[in-house]
Design goal:
about 70 residues; alpha/beta; 4 helices
Length: about 70
């Protein structure tokens, strides 16, 4: 399963990768860099799975993060 961390949790993407999860920060997927200060609209983020035709689970500061953290 592919995971995408939002800007506020971009720092956890490398930690999840180190533990074997396929996880990138939204900035890396959208802008090819990890500069979390660059604004990316929700509409742009929502278009990633449709454009790439892949299922991506968004990790944000809500319940999704808790589920991913518990599965590690």
């Amino acid at each position: 399963m592919k995971y995408m961390a939002d800007a506020s949790l971009a720092h956890i993407a490398p930690k999840l990768r180190d533990r074997g999860s396929d996880c990138d920060a939204v900035q890396l997927l959208m802008r090819k860099n990890e500069h979390s200060q660059e604004h990316i609209s929700d509409g742009e983020i929502a278009s990633i799975p449709k454009k790439d035709k892949v299922a991506i689970t968004m990790i944000d500061s809500g319940i999704t993060f808790e589920k991913v953290a518990l599965s590690l």
